[in-house]
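Chapter summary example.
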Amino acid sequence: MTTRADKAPTAEIPAAALSGWFMLLVNLALLFASVAVFIMSAASGLFAGVLLGVLLFLLALILLNGHFTLQPNEARVLILFGEYRGTVHASGFHWANPFYARRRGGALITAVAAAGEHAKAGPVDLAGALHARFGTKISLRAQTLNGDKLKVNDKGGNPIEIAAIVIWRVEDTARAVFDVEDYAAFVRIQAESALRHLASSYAYDHGEEHEPTLRSSVDEVSGALQRELQQRLQQAGCVVAEARLTHLAYAPEIAQAMLRRQQAEAIIAARQKIVHGAVSMVQMALQDLADKHVVALDEERKAAMVSNLLVVLCGEAEVSPVVNAGTLY
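The structure predicted for these 329 residues follows.
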């Protein structure tokens, strides 16, 4: 038995439409002819001619409803009484069967949810927004999804805030229209799900040795997000052009503690470099004194000199020198 999950994806069928200008002349000619037949028949008292004129007039009005325009990077899905007949990609003024659907079917609850989203966003053209999401015209332009900040746990269980921006576009109109209910909402939900899964797969900034982290491996993490999101959106016929993190921070409840840890680690790293440099300078000084036979120092004097030099080189405060006016020994 074939289940819904085993169903093959809908294949896009290229379709062509007639020239809108040519059909506009035909329809106007039919409209004027119907008016002429009606007037002549009415004047002659021919009932059949009057009926023919009325029918021709109604036919012209119906045919005029078949005109439509497409802008660059825009397509129209042709649906005739629930049957998919193809997709028109060519931009310009076209004419097609006037009985092709102007709106694609969608669940009422989806339309209501979309209306609620636009109402929360502020005063917008709600009818235009719903027509763009549920009409048969599909935009093929690149669209930007600026995701909200999500609070998730990283690989180490630390709560973090993360957000991403996704640039995507529709590539297969048949899949976008017929394989998912609302492809725009599908992209938004899948982007959030992929970002949550990504955040839980990487540590924030303290991973294992040579392990990429969210903070230090931005390009690698963004690439992984794009690949996972592309795999998820393949069902909807969408292509991800770019996916990149836009916000990354510890959650407020642990931000101060993590900041102190980062400061401590920075201080330790700086101290290590200072001590390493100071030891190298002391070693160089002792080596130069011995090679140039400036002074011969025993082990005790060498230890004192090393101690004094390390205090001078590693100390944060200014050092006041003490001049020995007596003998060295």
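To summarize the output: DSSP finds nine helices and ten strands in the chain.
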